Amino acid sequence: MVSSNSLFDSSLLGPTSHSSVPANHTMRSLELTDYRKGYIECLANLTVVGEVSEQMFAESFEDMQRAGCYFIVVIEDLEVAKIVATATLVVEQKFIRNCGRVGHIEDVVVAKGQQGKRFGFTLIKQLQELAAVTGCYKSILDCSLDNVPFYEKCGLENKGIQMAAYAPGAAHKL
């Protein structure tokens, strides 16, 4: 069951969540209180985030929770109550493949100073398990060429080229 504080029911997390993180860490669903545990600062290790107030965070969190297709997984360092890694699975409903579902893996980031602990690998494996549990026939992600070797180690295959078109004035220019 989803609490109002949790983005999704953490019982959906599979065996990876229990066996692959150090004893002083936990892997779980994003919680509303993670704003104060440095979730936005963790994301800033990946890309430009912009100025996200606690109210903006809460409104977006509630929108994602209502949609029911967002699965943001975090790893928290319990000793310092800080988010040290995160990744997102967005489940897209399709008409193709017998009205199948596709999992989009997004925003995979490990905070500076936390690399080398296999958090990225663990998050990718967890999102693949979540994709299976939510009925996805495949999981896909976009990455830079520099990151291809890492994702291949996680069991993903290079299947093509990503294309993008940004809206005029879009936030990517922050």
What does this structure look like?
With 174 residues, this protein is an alpha+beta fold. The chain has one domain (10-173): Aminopeptidase. The chain has helices spanning 16-19, 39-43, 54-67, 96-99, 119-133, 148-153; strands at 25-29, 70-77, 82-93, 101-110, 136-141. The chain has a five-stranded mixed sheet, sandwiched between helices. Helix 5 (119-133) links the parallel strand 4 and strand 5. The longest helix is centred in the C-terminal third of the chain and has 15 residues, at 119-133. It is globular and about 45 Å long. The N and C termini lie far apart (37 Å). The mean pLDDT is 91. This is Glucosamine 6-phosphate N-acetyltransferase. It comes from Coemansia thaxteri.
Features:
single chain, 174 residues, alpha+beta, Aminopeptidase, five-stranded mixed β-sheet, 6 helices, EC 2.3.1.4
CATH domain class: Alpha Beta
What is the CATH topology assignment?
Answer: Aminopeptidase
Q: What is the 3D shape?
A: globular
Q: Give the C-alpha Rg.
A: 16 Å
**Reading side by side through the largest sheet, how are the strands ordered?**
1-2-3-4-5
CATH architecture: 3-Layer(aba) Sandwich
What level of helicity do the residues show? Answer: 25-40%
Structural classification? alpha+beta
Number of strands: 5
Write out the CATH superfamily name. Answer: Gcn5-related N-acetyltransferase (GNAT)
Q: Helix and strand string, N-terminal first?
A: HEHHEEHEHEH
How is the biggest beta sheet arranged?
5 strands, mixed
Spans of at least 5 consecutive residues with low confidence: none
End-to-end Cα distance, whole Å, is: 37 Å
Number of domains: 1
Number of helices: 6
Strand content: 15-25%
